[in-house]
Amino acid sequence: MWIELNDNDVSGEPTACRVCGGPVRRCLDLGRQPVSNAFLLPEQIADEAFFRLEVGICTRCTLVQQLDVVAHERMFRPDYPYRSSTSARLRRHFADVARTLHTTELTGPDDLVVEVGSNDGIMLRTLSDAGVRHLGVDPCVGAGDTAAQGGVRIRIDYFNERSAAEIRRTDGPAKVIFSANTISHIADLGSVFGGVDALLTADGVFVFEDRYLADIIAHTTFDQIYDEHVYLLAVRSVSEVAAVFGFELIDAQRLGVHGGSMRYTVARAGARPRTARVDQLIGEERALGLGDPATFAGFGARLDVIGKDLVALLTELRSAGMRVAGYGATSKSATVTNYCGIGTDLVPVIYDTTPEKQGRLTPGAHIPVESAARFTDPYPDYALLFAWNHAEEIIEREREFRDRGGRWILYVPDVHLL
C-alpha cells in the first residue's frame, strides 16, 4: 500500500511565512511527489511515501517556500546516497572555496571553521590538509564515514542551537560557519541562525551557497524544486531572513555551479560593512519580478510546455523503435519523472556513477538505476540527461556516445537535442 505522508510527516500548509509571519500565497503546484533521494529496493515499493509539492511566496519578505515539508528524518536518512565528490567540477569548486576561506577569513593560527551539511568532506578535506581546525556537521552516517576516511573531522548530528553550543564548549567559537546547498533544506531557519548565534565569533561570518531563484525562473529549471529544497532563496529574501534573526547580509556573489547559485555572506548586525553588490542584486530582483506571484504563473506555464514536449519526444522515439536511456539518477529527476509521468515505458533505465544508487529503483517512477560503466553496453540511441547541471563534464566523459551517433536529450531551458 502506498503511504501518503500525514500530519506527523509534514508540517502542513502554513497560514503564515515560517520566518517573518507574513501571508504566504500559493503560486505553483507540482503535484504528488516522492522523497527525492529515497532510491528503493523492489521490496520497499509498498512502503513508499508521497507528499504534495506546492510552493508559495511570502508577500511580505518574498521568501519562496514549500507549503508542505517532509520531515527531515525521511529525507536525510543514514543511507542518504548523494555524494558531492562524484563530480570533478564540484571537487574543483569546493577546493577553490576552501582556499578562498583560508586566505580571507581563516588567517589566524587557531581559527575554527564549521561546515553545516559537510556530506563526504569535499570542501573540508582541503582545509584539513592545510592544517586548519575544522569540523563537519552532517546527520548522514554514510556520508560522514566517507568524510572521516578522508581525514575530515566529523560530528554526526543536525546543526542547531543545541549542537552549536556543545561544539563551542569543546572547540571554542568558529570564525567561519560554511554551508553549501543545505540551508534551503532546513525548514526551521530559526534553529540554524540560533546555532550560528551560539557558535560564531563576534566578527565571524556565516557563508552559505544555494541555488538561486532568479536562475531557476530564467531558465525554467523546475526540477530544482523537490522535497529537499524547502526554500528557493534570493538575495532580498535572505537579507530579510537574516535581519529577523539579528544578522545582516553583507555580500552576495553569483556562482555558476548547479545551474546558477548564489554565495551569501552573513555577519552579526553592524559587525561588518555591507557591499554595494547586495543592493544592486536586490534591485535586479525587483526588476525581474521575483517577489511577484504573477512571475510564478508564467514560470508554471513554461514548465507545463516543457513537460508536454518531453513526453511527446520520448513517445515519438519509442514508436520509432529507438532505445532511450536516462543519465544521472539525480534528486531533480524525481520531479521530472513524476510530474511528467515518465516511467519505464519511456525510459527503461537510468545510468549513474553513484554506487549507493545502483541496483535500486528511482523514487515514484521506479526506473532501474545501473552503473554508468554499463552505458556503453551497448550505447542507447538517445540519452535523457537528468544531470544537466553537469552536462559539460558528462558529455566530455561520454564523448564516444556522440561519436557513434548517439544524441543527448535536454529539457533546460527547453526540450532539445545535442
UniProtKB/TrEMBL annotation:
Q: Where is the C-methyltransferase domain?
A: 257-413
Which Gene3D superfamilies does the protein's record reference?
6.10.250.3100, Methyltransferase, zinc-binding domain, NAD(P)-binding Rossmann-like Domain, Vaccinia Virus protein VP39
Question: What Pfam family is a match for this entry?
Answer: Methyltransf_14
Q: Which residues form the Methyltransferase putative zinc binding domain?
A: 17-76
Q: Which domain of life is it from?
A: Bacteria
Q: Which PANTHER family match?
A: BLL5978 PROTEIN, TRANS-ACONITATE 2-METHYLTRANSFERASE-RELATED
What's the protein here called? NDP-hexose 3-C-methyltransferase
Which source organism? Actinoplanes auranticolor
